[in-house]
Every structure is written in structure tokens, then in C-alpha cells.
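User: C-alpha cells for this complex, please. No commentary.
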Amino acid sequence: MPTSLKDTVTLHNGVKMPWVGLGVFKVSEGEEVVESVKAAIRNGYISIDTAAIYKNEEGVGQAIRESGVPREELFITSKVWNSDQGYETTLQAFETSLNKLGLDYLDLYLIHWPGVDKYKDTWKALEKLYKDGRVRAIGVSNFLIHHLEDLMSDCEIKPMVNQVEFHPHLTQKELLAFCKKEGIQMEAWSPLKQGQLLNEPVLVDIAHKYNKSVAQVILRWDLQHEVVTIPKSIKEHRIIENADIFDFELSAEDMEKIDALNQDSRAGSHPDTMRVGF
Ligand SMILES: NC(=O)c1ccc[n+]([C@@H]2O[C@H](COP(=O)([O-])OP(=O)(O)OC[C@H]3O[C@@H](n4cnc5c(N)ncnc54)[C@H](OP(=O)(O)O)[C@@H]3O)[C@@H](O)[C@H]2O)c1
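Assistant:
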């Protein structure tokens, strides 16, 4: 079990990815994103998850430079947006992201959503970027088992990560088992279901028992399922709270109680019907 924000899981290519990072979806470009990322890094975070579509990569880059932490100690993820899928367009999108971030490499680059018919060409571009040393690891996001099977039947390099919606209302049991079997690291987006789980009575009870907050219980549940997690907050006290999850352990019984909250319900889109931008 990880014991600090600096602890990492080793991806199947040997690259070490932090178990906990800061998400910046819906964080405004400019002061808001700069201050949140700087607050996270100041409090020990080393992993930041952004995407071209979040339109805040410039601020993320500014915060990285202003943090004073050497680039190589950080783990920076971005994603190719749906409208840029395809081989050449993905290569261009990667350069644009890198320029906005002001970086000369990324730690992880993901296909944001599968869409229907372009993700194999997009993946070839990610394989090229990886082989050229522009990115240390490549992966996908919002891929279901059938997308992964289809991609893996054709690809040269297996995705290292699958970033998906994952929280107590969407426990993704089969997908998680599949990813574990294949050596693909699962990563939770909207781990707090965008704030919709904080008053869930079972979680409130468990939180009292461990003298922790509901958010901390959920994030700890992620770690005990061996899922990387990237909660978003723009508030420094919550950024600190969300990282204070290394000093307690949920019992097997409480893990099961949380698992039993599953409703297969999503805060975001379903990967099979998500067509925005395609
Ligand atoms: N790949 C994808 O398709 C995809 C999709 C969605 C998200 N993501 C990534 O996953 C990250 C996390 O997901 P998310 O931003 O959608 O939602 P989330 O992390 O589940 O929840 C964020 C919300 O919870 C609040 N919050 C955070 N910590 C809290 C705490 N300790 N107590 C109470 N409230 C708290 C935040 O408010 P404040 O900011 O006001 O504190 C915000 O409203 C994103 O930022 C993004 O990087 C990826």
C-alpha cells in the first residue's frame, strides 16, 4: 500500500506513476488553475491530470514552472481530444499540448474517448510518440472491455493505463478485473462522483468510524482496489484533505459495504454513446 503522495505504481513498461494526483477538469485557465496546481505541488502532489479540452494547459505549465520543483520529479498527463483523433491530427494535437504546457515531454498521453472508428489510427500516433521518446507512457481513457480487446488485437504496444469513471456508484468490477489481468493500470476519474457521494449514509457512517471524511474514505477505497485516483479541488484545504489517506486502512468488510453501493450510475457520458467532438 502506498504511504505518501510520492508513492508510485510501476506500469507495464517500467514507468512509475503516482497513485494520487490532482485533476483539473473545469478549472479555469489563468489564476484558478495556476493557484490550484501550485497548492497541490506545495502540499506534496507530484501528478497532475489535464487534457486539451480542459483548455487550461498553459496555466498548468505556468504552475509547474513557478512551483520550483524540477520537471523530472513530476508526472504530467494530457489527452488528445475527440476532434483531433486520427494519425496526423493526433501528432499535431500532441505538439500543441506540449507547447501550451511549455514542456518537452509528457509522462502520460491518453486517448480521451474511444469514439467509433478512429482510435486505432490515433493509437498508432501515440505509439510513434512513445517510440520517439516524446512521452514516457501511453494509454486510453473511457475504454470498455470491447474497445480494449479490439485495440489490443491490432496494436504493437499495449496501453499502459485506462482512465475511467470509477466511484462507489460505478464500481466497474468486470473492467477492473480485465485491466488487472492484462496489466493495464486503471485510473479513476470523478472519484468523488463530482461531489455527489458526500452525503451517502453508508459512507458517512464509515467515515465516522475511521475519523475521516467521506472524500478520504472513497479515495482510500480507490487505493485499496489498486486504482490510481485524481480528485479535483480548487481549494487548498481540500487538496490537503484528499491526500491525507495514507494513515488508515478500510477493513475487508467496509470495502465490501462500499462495493455494494454500486448502481452502475455515471456522472459523465457512457463510452458507447459519447459522440461530442467526433
Ligand atoms: N478522462 C475523462 O473523460 C475524465 C472525465 C472527467 C474527469 N476527468 C479527470 O478526473 C478528475 C477528477 O474528476 P472530476 O473533477 O470530474 O470530479 P471529482 O474529483 O469526483 O469531484 C470534484 C468535485 O468535488 C469537490 N471536492 C473535491 N474534494 C472535496 C472534498 N474533500 N470534500 C468535498 N468536496 C470536494 C470539488 O469542489 P472544489 O473544487 O470546489 O473543492 C469538485 O466540485 C478531473 O479533474 C479530470 O482531471 C477525466
